[in-house]
Specification:
The protein has eleven helices and twelve strands. With 332 residues, the protein is α/β, with parallel strands linked by helices. The protein has a domain at 2-179 and 217-239: Rossmann fold (3-Layer(aba) Sandwich), CATH 3.40.50. α4 runs parallel beside α5 (147-166) and α6 packs parallel to α8 (247-257). The longest helix has 21 residues, at 92-112. The protein is globular, with a radius of gyration of 19 Å. The chain binds nicotinamide-adenine-dinucleotide and thymidine-5'-diphospho-beta-D-xylose. Nicotinamide-adenine-dinucleotide binds at residues 7-8, 10-14, 34-37, 39-40, 58-60, 78-82, 97, 101, 119-121, 152, 175, 177-178, 184.
């Protein structure tokens, strides 16, 4: 058995990663370390609770992290503050968890000579112009726009430096926007779906022309396992499905799939510094490691995600009003 420590395993991608690992990769014995911030929930791991060890704790707690890293063979690092809008309201927890937390983890990984995979985002590269074919590559310069992406960029640079200066055995991946079950209702797709389900209009920032590349969370997690298995130490891999869609088109698709008129949405205040477009060139991951996204049809993946939120109101319902109150304070 390979002992795997998963930080942030009670969040959206982390809990899907743990489900994936427990059901499809029985060679791993999983321990989750998660602080259970507003974004992490024990409920997310209910179905696999008997198959994993769960430790509630902070990645900035050096003594705890040292002990858990010592007990693991491999560490998959997802714990982070993850929402751009929150980072615009209060950057402090982002600096703490994303930068200091990654530093604490790196030092433990260095001391105990463990393998690390660091999960990051394409937002570290800034944005791309609309209406072009340009894509980010592993060689793109770092140019983050928001406090969130600046702290993720910092964490990537720390990992790269620990690889080069201290010989830490780490890999990195930068994925595009994820969607799927257990995504917090503060994020774009779940917010709009749960708005419709609670009789609210979807809320589009600015013109809605901004484009994101949407990758199903299962495809992201499969890529992470491939990198753990076959990735080159010190290497970075970009992950992206190739499926680029504008925010306006997504809102219209959600309304249509949910049987509502496609113009029944509201335009609200734009996000300051709003990145225009993200798109990843994932040729390296595809050609060297053989990754291919399995969820190719965005429309069918979106329809399945809508069904998940419709069937799991117990999961998001109790938090919905609070989320919308916070959005009202920012202007929608
Ligand atoms: P999330 O907010 O849903 O989950 C984050 C988890 O980390 C939560 O369970 C939270 O409790 C935990 N956490 C936060 N601070 C912590 C701390 N100090 N100590 C321990 N646990 C802590 O986020 P997500 O969307 O699942 O993102 C996971 C990772 O993937 C992040 O590193 C994010 O930057 C990256 N990422 C996300 C996306 C996306 O589209 N969601 C895309 C690319 C990369
Ligand atoms: O209500 C909304 N209306 C709206 O138009 C919300 C919440 C968002 N948006 C827009 C902003 C973005 O252009 O939708 C797009 C997606 O927004 P988010 O879900 O906040 O995602 P984004 O800012 O693109 O960042 C996401 O992808 C990269 C994740 O939250 C990050 O953790 C990840 O690193």
């Amino acid at each position: 058995m390979t002992r795997m420590l998963v930080t942030g395993g009670a969040g959206f991608i982390g809990s899907n990663f743990v489900h994936h690992t427990v059901t499809r990769r029985p060679e791993f014995e999983v321990c989750v370390l998660d602080a259970l911030t507003y974004a992490g929930h024990r409920d997310n791991l209910k179905a696999v609770a008997g198959d994993i060890r769960f430790v509630e704790g902070d990645i900035c707690d050096a003594a705890l992290v040292d002990r858990l890293v010592a007990e693991a063979d491999v560490v998959v690092h997802l714990a982070a503050e993850s929402h751009v809008d929150n980072s615009l309201r209060d950057p402090e927890p982002f600096v703490r968890s994303n930068i200091t937390g990654t530093y604490v983890l790196l030092e433990a990984v260095r001391r105990h000579e463990r393998r690390l995979h660091h999960i990051s985002t394409d937002e570290v590269f800034g944005d791309l112009p609309l209406d072009t074919d340009e894509k980010f590559t592993e060689a793109s310069p770092y140019n983050p726009s928001s406090p969130y992406s600046a702290t993720k960029a910092s964490s990537d640079l720390l990992v790269r430096a620990w690889v080069r200066s201290f010989g830490v055995a780490a890999t990195l991946s930068n994925c595009a926007n994820n969607y799927g079950p257990y995504q917090h209702a503060e994020k774009f797709i779940p917010r709009q779906v749960t708005n419709v389900l609670t009789g609210r209009p979807p809320k589009l920032y600015g013109t809605g022309r901004n484009v994101r590349e949407w990758t199903h969370v299962e495809d992201h997690n499969e890529a992470v396992h491939l990198i753990l298995e076959k990735g080159g130490i010190g290497e970075t891999y970009l992950i992206g499905s190739g499926c680029e869609v504008s925010n306006k088109a997504i809102v219209e698709m959600i309304l249509e799939l949910m049987g509502k008129p496609v113009d029944r949405y509201e335009k609200v205040l734009d996000r300051p510094g709003h990145d225009l477009r993200y798109a990843n060139d994932s040729t390296k991951l595809r050609t060297r490691l053989g990754w291919e996204p399995r969820h190719r049809g965005f429309r069918s993946g979106l329809a399945a995600t809508i069904d998940w939120y419709r069937e799991n109101t117990w999961w998001w319902g109790p938090r919905k009003d609070g989320i919308e109150k916070a959005y009202d304070a920012r202007g929608g």
